[in-house]
Each structure stands twice: as structure tokens, then as C-alpha cells.
Predict the 3D structure of the following.
Amino acid sequence: MAEDGNPSAIAELAKLDADTPKLKPEDQFYWDAFWRLNRDRDFGMGEGYIPFQAIDCFARRYDIDDWDFEDLFSNITAMDTVYMEEKEKKRPKGKN
């Protein structure tokens, strides 16, 4: 493990970091917002989409309004759609 000072583990972590795509600052904001909002999903009969109310509350908290809200909402819902599609692909068949 890297915590133990293992040189090969440290080199592996460095390679992973180097291979990770770097986002532009404006895209990083949406990425971070998505993962914060990810915790606000409904989990009643299964994992649901991020609710509009959660995105709206996030926007109000960070003084995002008008057109900026539309950008936030569009980006979060697009990311959420991809997230849910990937979750569905990984779900065992025949289970809800």
C-alpha cells in the first residue's frame, strides 16, 4: 500500500493520477455538484434520479440563478441520466 511507503504502490498511484483526465474549472464545478447532489437521490423502491428540488436547493445555496441555473440543471440531469443508465446495465437481470 502507498501508506506503507511501498515504491511500486506509490508509482501505481502516480500513474493513475497521470492517466486521470483533468477537467476545466467550469466542468469541475458541475462534476463536484453532481457528486454532492448524488446523495439526495430517492431510494424508496430503488435508486431514483436526483430530484429537481435538490438541484434547486443547491443552486439557491450557492447563489446560482436564471441562465446559470439552467446550465446547472442541464448538466446535472445529463450526468444523472448517464449515471442511471450505467447503473441499470450493471444491475443483475430479473431484479428491481
About this structure: The CA atoms of residues 40 and 75 lie 16 Å apart. The chain has one domain: 22-90.
